[in-house]
């Protein structure tokens, strides 16, 4: 069995599966259950400064979208940071860490954008024996209206400033949690790095309105007839999160900044994908909130099996493996030619490929009166839509044309050599360079 | 076990009230809201969907299922009912396993089709429960049309004609409208008086006058109808029952299956309906299965269906055969009745094995029987009908007969499949043709 132990910025954990700062990590009772279930670490739900605790709404905090059979695909929340007294949280963190010394215990923090506030809280956290802190610069609702959370995370200068304060006032590793509600994720990541952050974690939740009550004409979740935007998470956000993680991982200036991947991790496979794109570990919330803590057992066995099959002994062999293959469009090989292939033995004749191609794409699939569907190679551009809409896995595949074969669509021979847009004759920039 | 359960002869009350209620409950429970959404989600929304092609009434099945999936089951019901005004009954009685569901691509993919029939029932039941009739009658045309027979074909024809603004008079020989929906379908497929409720709901369109207890040929002639109306539609079904030619067939206890089924459907108290301990049903169609299964549900101890050809030739679908088997009905194939034995009442029935070409083999066997139901086909009855073809009314196009201004559809018309849903399609299409003919 592969070794799943991870060392993330000096914080060791028996596996790369951490629970993200969120309701599942709000108190001792939950976190003990999580550790008993096998989670490698937790990021304790965000603590605020001492004083009167935060209040939450007393109506619904969550909204959701569902797929088939009410499978939860996306979750939205308007819950704020912990609403329990600071001293209670600190006491519990200390007790849990003492009992589970092998697990990662990171504490999420969000206090006002003043150095004194950070100076005040950091020693209190250090005293618990926690392994590190995560700066919540991502929370997009409620706290951001008070100048915290994503209000900080959307201004790179603030990120750098606060990160520096934290690094100057504690020996603990500092992870900066980034908001996706910005245009270029590289900017806040660079700011965190400049401020001395040991790592970044991303993504926090995405600004969202999950649905509208069409009788009340109110956004959901609805509190007394009104709704406020919340933070979106769950399987639906994974592609957005993967891209943001990868953007950081493939940028040379940021390449050595460790990343804790967050965003819709639901299965071992999701975790492996985040790690392949550069995440040193992953944080999970929605999947645990949907299915309970036990899912970590599948994540552990799945990742372990996968690594065994691939001959990987340690997670470090997986981390970043896919980063070199992330390219810009302009560098994709335009001489690569593929055609869709329909496996007639697997085809169930639903005709979805035909409808999709005929109505919305390239009219490259024919339909016989007997409902046999075939690809017209002289029209097929290998767009992959038929593969995506086919309900049968592996029924339609994309087959590469060998070099030397004639593409019936263009009448040209498939070239063996690589050629991209930067040198393409239709590219005005390329033509100029050639002249 | 009650002593009556084992008693010889044809007696009532073999089972107690709870056992009867359990047996005659809905064959398929209605889908709940959540079940319907889950079932609807399985539909792939196929292009030019095979299920539509397989439906005799061409219901846009993927569309109505998508309407259920998106939370608008009433819109789904309208999609169904615009093609098939008896969509509620068809959802219950259609052999979906040989029609829409057989052609479902998920049947090919995983042997488990989308539950089209149950989804159709979910949508139509919901709308009917609200008392909503989603169609509106056009301005009156002043034309008057006679529809003979208030079965599926006649009702579908009458509704479509009324919707077009024509005045329709429906004549039916029986006391209640509905035809086979009311008198001829297994009780567990049409529970809670559904057939009658559906007719009441259908009549909400307005413009339809129902005259029951009036038989053409007895109370009124086709000639009179033609003289008094702008058009006549014949949906008279098959009123006759084929006779059993074996010696002894006249003995007591040898009955028509359709009569038994009708009695069962009309009885207010199933525990008062007598049934034999040993029941033999002769035939291989849906009627045979309906009679056999219901005999079993009434408490008959031994029920056997005997069919003269091989199992593959049975008109009852594989699903119906399995239903019968699951209720404890034994099916014997390749055997023809040769004699009915008994002193006054039937005690035994003798069969001879026959090969698939119906050649006798000389080998015989006897089955104990205190009740024998004949389900060996029905035939057209009536005088002065339009020209016949193969024992049924010859039709061309959308049900045009040899007589001017007379259309026919349903089981009485040649070329049909003897299915409720086919009858509905023919009634509907004849109405469209009548409407077009009257407009010219």
TrEMBL record, chain A:
Pfam families, per database record: DHO_dh (PF01180), Fer4_21 (PF14697)
PROSITE patterns assigned to the protein according to its UniProt record, in alphabetical order: 4FE4S_FER_1, 4FE4S_FER_2
GO cellular component entries: cytoplasm
Record Gene3D superfamilies: 3.30.70.20, Aldolase class I
Signal peptide location: none
Keyword entries, A-Z: Iron, Iron-sulfur, Metal-binding, Oxidoreductase
Residue ranges annotated for the 4Fe-4S ferredoxin-type domain, each copy included: 338-370, 371-401
Enzyme Commission (EC) number: 1.3.1.1
Catalysed reaction equations from the record: 5,6-dihydrouracil + NAD(+) = uracil + NADH + H(+); 5,6-dihydrothymine + NAD(+) = thymine + NADH + H(+)
Gene Ontology MF terms: dihydropyrimidine dehydrogenase (NAD+) activity; iron-sulfur cluster binding; metal ion binding
InterPro entries reported for this sequence: 4Fe4S_Fe-S-bd, 4Fe4S_Fe_S_CS, Aldolase_TIM, Dihydroorotate_DH_cat
Task of the protein: Involved in pyrimidine base degradation. Catalyzes physiologically the reduction of uracil to 5,6-dihydrouracil (DHU) by using NADH as a specific cosubstrate. It also catalyzes the reverse reaction and the reduction of thymine to 5,6-dihydrothymine (DHT).
Family: Belongs to the dihydropyrimidine dehydrogenase family.
Description of how the protein assembles with itself and partners: Heterotetramer of 2 PreA and 2 PreT subunits.
Protein name as it appears in the record: dihydrouracil dehydrogenase (NAD(+))
Species the sequence originates in: Thalassococcus profundi
Organism phylogeny: Bacteria, Pseudomonadati, Pseudomonadota, Alphaproteobacteria, Rhodobacterales
Automatic annotation (TrEMBL), chain B:
Chain ranges of the Dihydroprymidine dehydrogenase domain: 24-130
First and last residue of the signal peptide: none
GO MF annotations, alphabetized: iron-sulfur cluster binding; oxidoreductase activity
Alphabetized Gene3D superfamilies for the sequence: Alpha-helical ferredoxin, FAD/NAD(P)-binding domain
The FAD/NAD(P)-binding domain, residue ranges: 144-427
InterPro entries: DPD_II (IPR028261), FAD/NAD-bd_sf (IPR036188), FAD/NAD-binding_dom (IPR023753), Helical_ferredxn (IPR009051)
Domain of life: Bacteria
Short name of any one Pfam family annotated for the protein: Pyr_redox_2
PANTHER family xrefs: GLUTAMATE SYNTHASE [NADPH] SMALL CHAIN, GLUTAMATE SYNTHASE [NADPH] SMALL CHAIN-RELATED
Protein name as annotated: NAD(P)-dependent oxidoreductase
Organism: Thalassococcus profundi
């Amino acid at each position: 069995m592969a070794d799943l132990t991870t060392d993330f910025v000096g914080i060791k954990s028996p596996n790369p599966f951490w629970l993200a700062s969120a309701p599942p990590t709000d108190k001792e009772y939950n976190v003990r259950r999580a550790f008993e279930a096998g989670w490698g670490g937790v990021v304790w739900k965000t603590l605020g400064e001492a004083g009167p605790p935060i209040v939450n709404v007393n109506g619904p905090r969550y909204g959701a979208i569902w797929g088939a059979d009410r499978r939860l695909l996306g979750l939205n929340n308007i819950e704020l940071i912990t609403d329990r007294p600071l001293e209670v949280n600190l006491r519990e963190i200390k007790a849990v860490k003492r009992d589970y010394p092998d697990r990662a215990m990171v504490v999420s923090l969000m206090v006002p954008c003043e150095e004194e506030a950070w100076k005040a809280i950091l020693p209190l956290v250090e005293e618990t024996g926690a392994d590190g802190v995560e700066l919540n610069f991502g929370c997009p609702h409620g706290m951001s209206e008070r100048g915290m959370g994503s209000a900080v995370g959307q201004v790179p200068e603030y990120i750098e400033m606060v990160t520096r304060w934290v690094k100057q006032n504690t020996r603990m590793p500092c992870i900066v949690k980034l908001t996706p509600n910005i245009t270029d994720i590289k900017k806040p990541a660079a700011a965190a790095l400049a401020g001395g952050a040991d790592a970044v974690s991303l993504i926090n939740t995405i600004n969202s309105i999950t649905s509208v009550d069409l009788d009340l004409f109110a956004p959901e979740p609805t509190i007394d007839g009104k709704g406020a935007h919340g933070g979106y998470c769950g399987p639906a956000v994974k592609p957005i999160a993967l891209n943001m993680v990868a953007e950081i991982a493939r940028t040379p200036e940021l390449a050595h900044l460790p990343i804790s991947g967050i965003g819709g991790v639901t299965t071992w496979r999701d975790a492996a994908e985040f790690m392949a794109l550069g995440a040193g570990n992953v944080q999970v919330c929605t999947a645990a909130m949907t299915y309970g803590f036990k899912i970590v057992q599948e994540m552990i066995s799945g990742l372990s099996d996968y690594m065994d099959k691939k001959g990987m002994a340690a997670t470090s062999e997986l981390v970043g493996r896919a980063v070199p293959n992330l390219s810009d469009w302009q560098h994709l090989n335009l001489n690569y030619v593929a055609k869709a292939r329909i496996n007639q033995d697997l085809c169930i004749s639903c005709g979805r490929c035909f409808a999709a191609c005929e109505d919305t794409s390239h009219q490259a699939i024919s339909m016989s009166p007997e409902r046999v569907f075939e690809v017209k190679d002289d029209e097929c551009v290998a767009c992959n839509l038929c593969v995506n809409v086919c309900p049968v896995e592996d029924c339609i595949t994309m087959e590469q044309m060998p070099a030397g074969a004639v593409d019936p669509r263009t009448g040209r021979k498939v070239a063996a050599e690589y050629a991209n847009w930067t040198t393409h004759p239709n590219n005005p920039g390329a033509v100029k360079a050639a002249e | 076990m009650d002593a009556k359960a084992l008693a010889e002869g044809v007696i009532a009350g073999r089972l107690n009230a709870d056992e009867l209620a359990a047996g005659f409950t809905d064959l398929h429970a209605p889908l709940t809201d959540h079940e319907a959404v889950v079932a609807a989600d399985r539909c792939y929304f196929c292009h030019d969907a095979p299920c539509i092609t397989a439906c005799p009434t061409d219901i846009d099945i993927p569309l109505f299922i998508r309407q259920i999936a998106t939370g608008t089951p009433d819109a789904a019901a309208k999609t169904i009912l615009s093609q098939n005004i008896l969509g509620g009954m068809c959802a219950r009685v259609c052999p979906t396993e040989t029609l829409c569901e057989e052609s479902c691509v998920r049947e090919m993919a995983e042997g488990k089709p989308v539950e089209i029939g149950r989804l159709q029932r979910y949508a139509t039941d919901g709308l009917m429960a609200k008392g909503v009739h989603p169609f509106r009658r056009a301005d009156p045309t002043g034309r008057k049309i006679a529809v003979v027979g208030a079965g599926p074909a006649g009702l579908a024809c009458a509704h479509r004609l009324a919707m077009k603004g024509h005045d329709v008079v429906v004549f039916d020989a029986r006391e209640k409208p509905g035809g086979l929906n009311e008198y001829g379908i297994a009780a567990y497929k049409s529970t809670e008086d559904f057939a009658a409720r559906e007719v009441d709901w259908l009549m909400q369109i307005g413009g339809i006058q129902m005259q029951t207890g009036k038989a053409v040929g007895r109370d009124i002639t086709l000639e009179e109808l033609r003289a008094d109306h702008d058009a006549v539609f014949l949906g008279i079904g098959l009123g006759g029952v084929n006779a059993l030619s074996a010696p002894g067939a006249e003995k007591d206890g040898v009955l028509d299956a359709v009569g038994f089924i009708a009695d069962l459907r009309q009885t207010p108290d199933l525990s008062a309906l007598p049934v034999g301990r040993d029941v033999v049903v002769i035939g291989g169609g849906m009627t045979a299965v309906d009679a056999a299964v219901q005999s079993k549900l009434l408490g008959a101890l031994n029920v056997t269906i005997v069919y003269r050809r091989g199992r593959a030739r049975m008109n009852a679908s594989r699903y119906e055969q399995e239903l019968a088997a699951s209720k404890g009905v034994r099916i014997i194939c390749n055997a023809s009745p040769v004699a009915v034995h008994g002193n006054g009442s039937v005690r035994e029935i003798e069969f001879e094995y026959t090969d698939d070409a119906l050649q006798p083999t000389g080998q015989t066997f006897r089955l104990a029987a205190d009740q024998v139901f004949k389900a060996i086909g029905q035939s057209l009855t009536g005088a002065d009908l339009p020209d016949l073809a193969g024992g049924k009314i010859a039709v061309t196009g959308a049900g045009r007969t040899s007589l001017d201004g007379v259309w026919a559809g349903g089981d009485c018309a040649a070329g049909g499949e003897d299915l409720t849903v086919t009858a509905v399609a023919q009634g509907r299409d004849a109405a469209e043709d009548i409407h077009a003919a009257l407009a010219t």
